[in-house]
Amino acid sequence: MNKTKQDIFEYNRRWAEEQLQHNPHFFETLSANQTPDYLYIGCSDSRVTAEEMMGMKLGEVFVHRNIANMVNPLDINAASVVGYAVDHLKVKHIVVCGHYNCGGIKAAMQPCDYGALNPWLRNIRDVYRLHREELDAIDDENIRYDRLVELNVQEQCINIIKMAEVQKRYLNEHYPTVHGWVFDIRSGRLKDLGIDFERILKDIQKIYDLTDRQWAVPQTKI
C-alpha cells in the first residue's frame, strides 16, 4: 500500500515517541555527535537500504548513495563524502556495495541513448571495456549481468584506493580498509567479494601513489 505524506509523518511521530520511551536521552545523545566505523557507498535503488540489511543503528554508518554505487574521481559529491568520512569521521571501513538486478548496470549494457544519464553510464561502460574479454566469454546474459555488477564494485573500490585521503591516513593509522560487497536482492544475503585491499595498494603504488612514502602493510588489525 502506498503511504501518503500524512502516513509518513504519523509514523515518524510514533517512532520518535517509542525511542524516548526506551531511552529518554536518545535524541540528546544522537544529536551530540556521530562516530561511525563504516562509510557505506551504495546504489540509490529503493529496494536496498544500508542500515536495515547491515543491522546498523542510527549513527553507526555514514551513507552515500547514487546510481550503480559509483565513485567517479570527477564527482565532487562522492569525493567530498569520502574525504569527510576519512579525515573527519575517521571511519575504519569503506564499503562499496552493489546489488544484483541493478538498473544502472543493466542500462549500461544496452545500446540505448539515455540522454542526461549517458555521461554517468559511460563510467559503467568503461568497466565493461576493461573486462570485456571475461564478460563476452559468458554466454548466459543474466550471469554476465551479475558479473558486471561485481566487477563494477571492484573498480569503484580501486577508485577509492587511488584517493589521497585514503592513502595518507592508511599510512599513518592503517585505516581505513576498503571492502567490496554485493547485495543479492533475490535472497536478501550480502556477498563479500573478497577485495584484497593490501594487494591492490601494492599493485597500484607505482602509478597512483600520492604520498611519496613507502606503503607499509600492518601486521595486525582490529
TrEMBL record:
EC code: 4.2.1.1
Binding positions (Zn(2+)): 43, 45, 99, 102
InterPro entries: Carbonic_anhydrase, Carbonic_anhydrase_CS, Carbonic_anhydrase_sf
Any one of the GO BP annotations: cellular response to oxidative stress
GO MF annotations in UniProt: carbonate dehydratase activity; zinc ion binding
Reactions this protein catalyses: hydrogencarbonate + H(+) = CO2 + H2O
Names of required cofactors: Zn(2+)
SUPFAM superfamilies given in the database record: beta-carbonic anhydrase, cab (SSF53056)
Listed GO CC annotations: cytoplasm
UniProt KW keywords: Lyase, Metal-binding, Zinc
CDD domains (alphabetical): beta_CA_cladeA
Enzyme class name: lyase
Cofactor binding: number and manner: Binds 1 zinc ion per subunit.
Statement: the UniProt record of this protein carries the keyword Kinase: no
UniProt cross-references to PANTHER family, sorted A to Z: CARBONIC ANHYDRASE (PTHR11002:SF51)
Family per record: Belongs to the beta-class carbonic anhydrase family.
Name of the protein this chain belongs to: Carbonic anhydrase 2
